[in-house]
UniProtKB/TrEMBL annotation:
Name of the protein: DUF1697 domain-containing protein
InterPro entries named among the record's database cross-references: DUF1697 (IPR012545)
Domain of life: Bacteria
PANTHER family to which the protein is assigned, alphabetical: BLL4334 PROTEIN (PTHR36439), DUF1697 DOMAIN-CONTAINING PROTEIN (PTHR36439:SF1)
Pfam families cross-referenced by the UniProt entry: DUF1697 (PF08002)
Leader peptide range in chain numbering: none
Length: 179
């Protein structure tokens, strides 16, 4: 059995169709094993015999749309890939804390044409693009209620086929996959 994390875009726990128990139900209905949700922001871990992540993304997204009306994006990453990202320690020496968020923006595309802006806004430090994880790594100044321009740039440049998680969330997902 392979272990995966599905990172769902646009999940709002206030929407009754987006609650964890309903999300788990969709994944269980697809025949996946050891389905569990993490936090209330669209992180679902599961096991299955399938090994094609793109096919899993499509199957999951179709089921979410059909059964719960969730049209957002689904990005799947295997346990080994997420574990390898953590082991590379891309944020070495930095701490995720109240005013400084370490973030990972995952791309659905298998071979994205990645453009890095000349300079991020004053609220964002770009650590870089991790090709193995297909993810941008950034440090966000979260001490202000303003949304960083970089996040808007990501959405404008790459559309809905991306999703962002904090580094702490990625660590929690991997821990859940290893439980």
């Amino acid at each position: 059995m392979n272990s995966y994390a599905a990172l769902l875009r646009g999940i709002m726990p206030s929407n009754p169709n987006m609650r964890n128990e309903k999300l788990r139900g969709v994944f269980e209905g697809l025949g996946f094993d050891r389905v569990a949700t993490l936090l209330s922001s669209g992180n679902v871990v599961f096991r299955c015999a399938d090994s094609d992540e793109a096919e899993l993304e499509d199957r999951i997204q179709e089921a979410l749309n059909r059964e719960l009306g969730i049209a957002g994006g689904t990005i799947v990453r295997g346990h080994e890939d997420l574990r390898a990202l953590i082991d590379r320690d891309p944020f070495a020496g930095r701490t995720h804390e109240r005013g400084t968020y370490l973030t990972v923006t995952f791309f659905k595309d298998r071979h994205p044409e990645v453009a890095t802006p000349e300079a991020a806004d004053e609220l964002t430090e770009i650590i870089g693009y991790d090709a193995e994880a297909r993810a941008f790594l950034t440090v966000i100044d979260n001490s202000t209620p303003r949304t960083p321009d970089f996040m808007a740039w990501l959405d404008k440049t790459y559309g809905k086929d991306i999703t962002t998680r904090t580094w702490l969330t990625i660590q929690k997902v991997v821990k859940k996959l290893e439980a």
